[in-house]
């Protein structure tokens, strides 16, 4: 019997192995990492009958293509895209049975940025600190896919006895990404005008954005204090402001410490939408309150 697994035919712009990450290691300098759109990752596993912790592939803009080395079942969620099996169109958002040797091609995203490709049983990459997630900042987990790479699968069992919906639920990314933000912990390093600018101006997603952070283009935030902070802890969703004054929203692979002031924090529940915001998307921050901190 063929060894269950996959061969990478087309790696795409950036395809990584992801699960729900490795929380709890920030004190060791290790970020959480994991799927940038956890809802899409969980949906792929739910449609396959996998535990939500099973590892999937996260693609970026251009998708990827893999060859099944043994029969398996796959599903594509997250950013909508054309999907084919051996050149034949197959449904996006529904499990598809793949014969041994079949090539699953996940095309370029038509909306959003990141698609998630799940397989029955999940990807069986070697866990590091309890997670199979690729962390681009620390270098933990499997390396991003390259053409010709092989990936083991934990199981090739078919999906049976499950009711599969007609289509995976998906809300197309809005033309304007609106993110809730609470001021703090270093909002007092900015002028009142700088604080108002954050929650009244329209920014754009920069093409320099990545899994570490969503960078923005737009008006600079005026500082009330000069100089730099000593390095301090950086939470997921922190909005750090580097010297040029444009906000940077920290995502799953963010550094755990930093010396630039954090003007506010976006709750983690809103970060999935940020992960699907393509370069050029309008971004607005809306004030929800203040958090403790500063000094």
UniProtKB/TrEMBL annotation:
InterPro entries, sorted = CT_A_B, Cyclophilin-like_dom_sf, PxpC
Sorted alphabetically, which SMART domains does this protein's record hold?
AHS2
| Keywords noted in UniProt | ATP-binding, Hydrolase, Nucleotide-binding
Domain spans labelled Carboxyltransferase: 27-291
- Which top-rank group of organisms is this from? Bacteria
Q: PANTHER family in the record, alphabetically?
A: 5-OXOPROLINASE SUBUNIT C
Q: NCBIfam families attached here?
A: urea_amlyse_rel (TIGR00724)
Q: What is this protein called?
A: Biotin-dependent carboxyltransferase family protein
What species is this protein from? Streptomyces spirodelae
């Amino acid at each position: 019997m063929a060894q269950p697994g996959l061969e990478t035919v087309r790696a795409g712009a950036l395809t990584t192995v992801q699960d729900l990450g490795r929380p709890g290691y920030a004190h060791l300098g290790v970020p959480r990492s994991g799927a940038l759109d956890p809802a899409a990752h969980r949906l792929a596993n739910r449609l396959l009958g996998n535990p939500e912790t099973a590892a999937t592939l996260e693609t970026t803009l251009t998708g990827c293509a893999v060859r099944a080395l043994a029969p398996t079942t796959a599903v594509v969620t997250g950013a909508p895209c054309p999907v084919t099996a051996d050149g034949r169109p197959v449904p996006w958002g529904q499990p598809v049975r793949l014969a041994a040797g079949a090539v699953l091609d996940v095309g370029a995203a038509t909306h959003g940025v990141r698609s998630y490709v799940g397989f029955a049983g999940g990807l069986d990459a070697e866990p590091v600190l309890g997670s199979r997630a690729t962390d681009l900042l620390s270098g933990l987990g499997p390396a991003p896919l390259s053409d010709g790479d092989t990936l083991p699968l934990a199981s090739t069992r078919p999906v049976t006895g499950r009711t599969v919906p007609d289509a995976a639920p998906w809300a197309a990314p809005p033309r304007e990404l609106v993110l809730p933000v609470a001021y703090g912990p270093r909002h007092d390093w900015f002028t009142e005008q700088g604080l108002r600018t954050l929650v009244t101006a329209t920014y754009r997603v920069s093409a320099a954005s990545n899994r570490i952070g969503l960078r923005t283009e737009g008006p600079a935030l005026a500082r009330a204090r000069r100089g730099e902070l000593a390095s301090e802890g950086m939470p997921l969703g922190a909005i750090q402001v580097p010297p040029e004054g444009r906000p940077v929203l920290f995502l799953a692979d963010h550094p755990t410490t930093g010396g630039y002031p954090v003007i506010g924090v976006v709750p983690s529940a809103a970060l999935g939408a940020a992960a699907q915001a393509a370069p050029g998307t309008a971004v607005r921050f809306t004030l929800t309150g203040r958090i403790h901190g500063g000094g």
